[in-house]
Amino acid sequence: MGTATFLVYMTVFVVLWILFNVVGIFGFRWDAYPFILLNLFFSTQASYSAPLILLAQNRQERRDQVSFDEDRRIAAQSRADMDFLAREIAAIRMSLGELATRDFVRGELRNELRDLAERLEQATDEEEQK
């Protein structure tokens, strides 16, 4: 009932109905003006179309609710995944904070080399003094 095809067929039907009943082809008129029988058909059609429209709306509401619930579930899962990843990234950052960097290791090695050089100088000075 809600298609363009239906509207075209219904328009052709009504035009033919009115033509046959006004012109009276073959002298046959089954529904004289004001077309009470045609009006009855339209009323019957309307009485069926209203509940069909309501049924379609109810089905659409159910589909929308299912879609909404699925979207909510996906959003909750996404949130849980993001929270998990945030915790993992925080743990990695903490672990990286405890790791020695290349510059730190070089600095420590330089300090040790200076200490060794000072000890070596002290040892050579002590040997010279003996």
TrEMBL record:
Pfam families: DUF1003. Keywords: Membrane, Transmembrane, Transmembrane helix. InterPro entries: DUF1003. The chain crosses the membrane at residues 7-26, 32-55. This is DUF1003 domain-containing protein. The lineage of its organism: Bacteria, Bacillati, Actinomycetota, Actinomycetes, Propionibacteriales.
